[in-house]
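Render Multidrug resistance efflux transporter family protein in 3D.
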Amino acid sequence: MKAIMVGIIASIFFSSTFIINRSIDLEGGSWYYSASLRFFFMIPFLLLIVFFKGGITPVISEMKKNPNQWLLWSFIGFVLFYAPLTIAAAYGPGWLVAGTFQLTIIAGVLLSPLFFISNEKNGWQKQVRQKIPIKALWPSLFILFGIFLIQMQQSESITWTILLVSTLPVVIAAFAYPLGNRKMMELCEGRLNSFQRVLGMTMASLPWWLLLFLYGFSKEGAPPTHQIYQTFLVALFAGVIATVLFFYATDLVRNQPENLAAVEATQSGAVFFAVLGEMVLLAAPIPGLSSLIGLGCIIVGMIVHSFITSRNQKLMAQGRILKS
């Protein structure tokens, strides 16, 4: 239950990504800078946090062991996650981007067979490939149905071209984020805490962000002041606070596929908070009945996930008691 609550709090901060990126686009900012500047701004925050939470030396040591793996999975988990989100913000409203990104709920479940967990049998530790947790899949589908209702009503005022261009990049991001996150957890094997892992992935992705920044500078010139300020806020709220909270939540249940899927499902709360934020800050219209029903479906789906998580934890505790 603790992991679920942490995940919901993370979704509140994560929703700022969709709201602020949309605001930046409406004011004429380029997605090149929205993506790259966020990660530049994250570095000093993370260095300070990690200095007091576990130290920087272990991060450097882990990165030296497998530099290619760090570069690969940081590219997938951060670059292929965030760059497509900023591209999508240039073509569609924040609620559409936030809603489509909830495909990560299903993506996280479907990616389970790509990972292994340790299983003790007859006194031997064996790496066993994870299975797709069906029990965790159906509540996720219920959440996505709610998101579908929201998008159906909102898409009435959007052309199919905008819908397509703003959707495909987010589909890529939805699969890249859990894939990169889980692969890095698997690579680190608990040797780094969530703060250290976020710092390592941010540093490993810097070469890609530098290239993107330089490319944007050659095409657009220097970024405007308002974009620098707003991107700084995204870096603080979504890049540091939300990411660290989410990674911490997934760390709590990293060897429990169903519970991990439940934590990833909490990110659907970003849809609700994005809708609310756009209404308050960007004067977006109040959602209609269909959207309200959709939000209700999302909340119910999250409650079901929480119930499954709580029940699994009780069963695991009972199993440990019986074994002892």
